[in-house]
Amino acid sequence: MAKKEQYDASSIHVLEGLEAVRMRPGMYIGSTSRKGLNHLIYEIVDNAVDEHLAGYCRNIWVTLEKDGSCTVTDDGRGVPVDIHEKGMPAERLVYTTLHAGGKFDNDAYKTSGGLHGVGSSVVNALSTWMDVIIKRGGAIYHDHFKRGVPDLELMDGHLPILGKTKETGTTVNFLPDPEIFDVTRFSATEVKSRLHETAYLNPALTIVFRDFRKEEAEEITFRESEGIIGFVRDINKNEETLTDPIYLSGEDEGIEVQIAIQYVDEFHENVMGYCNNIFNADGGTHLTGFKTAFTQVMNSYARELGVLKDKDANFTGPDIRNGMTAVVSIKHPDPRFEGQTKTKLDNPDASRVVAKVVADEAPHYFDRNLETLKKVLECAEKSAKIRKSTEKVKNNLLTKQKFSFDTNGKLANCISRDASQCEIFIVEGDSAGGSAKTARDRRYQAILPIRGKILNVEKASIDKVLANNEIKTMITAFGCGFSEGYGNDFDITKLRYDKIIIMADADVDGAHIGTLLLTLFYRYMPELINEGHVYVAMPPLYKVIPAKGEGVYLYDDKALEQYRKRHRDKKFTLQRYKGLGEMDPEQLWETTLNPETRRLRRIEISNPSYSSDITDVLMGTDVPPRKAFIYEHARDAELDV
Q: Given 428, 470, 484, 613, which residue is catalytic?
């Protein structure tokens, strides 16, 4: 009998200081992709915004430096530098200790987005170096860290002083660690969008963005005196609006509520929730309270005005919200979020207070603005009619296809019915589809070949979307329905596959097909993306076959360049894959299907308003904005030469 491995107190490992952050960065910033990289900036900016909310900061400067680092400066009070009871300067405690900060002191901050107290220390831990300048109490203090560890000697236990000043504030300059992140170049476009959003949520705050990485330095100042009213105007700037922005506000139980609503002539809803300036991508209790109360108020008006008769059923929430753009922003003294990245608010009192503000303030507004009320009810009435007729169309179209193995010669389903283990590959072309069907693990991998490019749903009407054979097949295969803007029958719990994987050729046509599929998912099944079920396969571009030894797959031109540098004196044959159909089943399994060796890229949405704008620009009918976007971002393109 084999001897058991020793398991005692020596087997228990304790990660000291910030080791845990470097070991599991995704727990703290969501991912190590560009989304997680940009999140480092947001953590530091959020701390500066908290100073603004406390009444001490009016300006924030965010600079992308030439060396790849980022500098965030504010004119707040400056991080405390006096000696803490722990025996070190308070500043070092803030930047090196998890759950340390002024956010836990109700006297220091009434409301805060950084309640977990890990933001600054996490950024420090995930940076090659961090440099901190603090102006406070007439002096300029300095500190420096390498991968979270201080490397400046204290002077009699205090931080070094660089000089004197009458100003106050904090400057943090940090360089992301390439050992942690997949990429280390910040996305200026996404950062600007987030900063602009923050300015809308704080109308008395000025934020200056600078990018010194370009040949000609870029500088933009964000100051939005209209607040969230201006925010909804901006979101709808390219839409035909049906109403002016509707503004509701109130305060109860120490929770401040602001809501801005505007209706457009597009039948989809865009409702965004913020708590203490933090965007909650997965919503939460504040949005639940808003949606429930607004639906009740509108149904009450509909019956009072005779839009709904006694025999009629109430409008559904989606009926009433179709065409709605809304920003719900609350300030909460003690918010509870699900996870460090704060994607969902969990406070029951937030739902109660938001619902009360809507129930009290919406009637006051609509009693004085009857034309706006009529427009909202017209949208709901139109939505309800289209929803009912669309349900009949869907039933007729979608029930004709059965969910079975190799339906109509297309879907090659897997044997397992355990959705948590199953995955479906959407494969471009019959040739690649045939190879994939042969190569796959039939137990849990399904293959759905599609022919060419699917319909661009951004330009198509709902009836054309539903009539498209490729789209119908996907909807039927996934099993969870779809949300078409005239009501929502999408049910994520009925999804038959944990992973939906787009597998297209690594060329321009393949990228276009992938973009069309992502547009479909984003507009009609957004929960698939929001809950992390959509992936893109990353097949290799090359296979290197040396004169001696085994072949090696290379996934991009950079990898090929590095291979050539490492093997300058060796002969090898280079095979270039122009498409998935050129791979035999064994190669396809080894490179793209095998969970042990494949590479997948998960699709995430970091900023919904920015993502919606980009989708509209790149996939919509208006050509000039698309040309302008292409010209602006031409330098960022990766050319396949």
A: 428
